[in-house]
Write a structure and sequence with these properties.
Layout lengths: L1 E2 L7 H7 L2 E2 L3 E11 L4 H14 L10 H8 L2 E2 L2 E2 L3 H17 L3 E2 L8 E3 L3 H14 L4 H4 L3 H9 L5 E5 L15 E11 L4 E11 L27 E2 L11 E2 L2 E2 L2
Antiparallel strand pairs: 1-3, 2-3, 3-10, 4-5, 6-11, 7-8, 8-9, 9-10, 12-13
Helix pairs in contact: 2-4
Family: Belongs to the MAF1 family.
Protein name: Repressor of RNA polymerase III transcription MAF1
Main location: nucleus
Length: about 250
């Protein structure tokens, strides 16, 4: 997965504005655009997932019941015996690996993701979170959704959320003080792009450095040998308030 930079879109300003402090908590967030073009490490991940979920890769070693168990896996992406379903899982895991380089998400399972009912529901949920924490500026002044729409074409995108186990969430560590978090992937198949949008609220009083990370300067667990979904790698203006895109309230 390749991080994308676009002239004319000030994602740095948007990401800076997503990091605020409120009386209740410190809020950290970021929006990251990625191309689905595979890099060297991604190719290894793709092969690993194909070996795990492609029935053809097991045709000579699995008995019929075991082969059927792979074919019958129903995921948020569709049946896992279908190449398109496996490719979507690959793209989302590859995005997580790129966004959290200290973590290895290769063991993440399809059930740790969820396909959201609509882009509009997710947009309104994120807006509610931003407004509830006093951050209307990023929506109304910086027009975050217009920028994201230019990058991904929201009306032609699917949205998936990542819901890891509490002890393997890259947005938290044991005793890290995270009160809430979300991880959304806006995925446009035609453009072969993903926007990763993540935010979290950290309890006031938890030590953070200037980058907004707790304690050791990253979002990862401190146990290098931890198993789980995302285990740590070893060694490692004026606004038109009626602006809408489809059924999304982006104002």
């Amino acid at each position: 997965m390749k991080f994308l930079e676009y002239a004319g879109l000030d994602l740095d300003a948007i990401n800076c504005s997503l990091n605020i402090e409120t009386p209740e908590c410190k809020v950290f967030g970021r929006v990251e655009p990625y191309s689905c073009k595979a890099a060297g490490a991604d190719k290894k991940l793709y092969k690993q997932l194909e070996n795990k979920y492609d029935p053809a890769a097991h045709s000579n070693i699995l008995s019929p019941p075991e082969d059927d168990s792979i074919r019958n896996i129903i995921s948020p992406f569709g049946p896992m015996d279908q190449p398109a379903s496996r490719k979507t899982l690959f793209y989302l895991i590859g995005t997580l690996n790129a966004s959290f380089p200290d973590y290895d998400f290769s063991d993440t399972k399809p059930e740790h993701f969820r396909k959201e009912p609509s882009v509009g529901i997710v947009v309104n949920s994120i807006n509610a979170t931003l407004f509830n924490h006093g951050n209307e500026r990023v929506v109304k002044d910086l027009r975050i959704w217009e920028s994201i729409d230019q990058l991904i074409d929201l009306e032609d995108s699917d949205v998936y959320s990542f819901n890891p186990d509490a002890d393997s969430d890259p947005n938290d560590e044991e005793g890290g003080g995270t009160l809430w978090s979300f991880n959304y992937f806006f995925y446009n198949r035609k453009l072969k792009r993903i926007i990763y949008f993540t935010m979290r609220g950290v309890a006031n009083g938890v030590p953070v450095d200037e980058d907004g990370d707790e304690d050791d300067g990253n979002f990862s667990n401190t146990d290098d040998d931890q198993d789980g979904v995302g285990h740590r790698r070893k060694g490692s203006s004026n606004v038109d308030d009626d602006f809408v895109a489809g059924d999304m309230d982006m104002s």
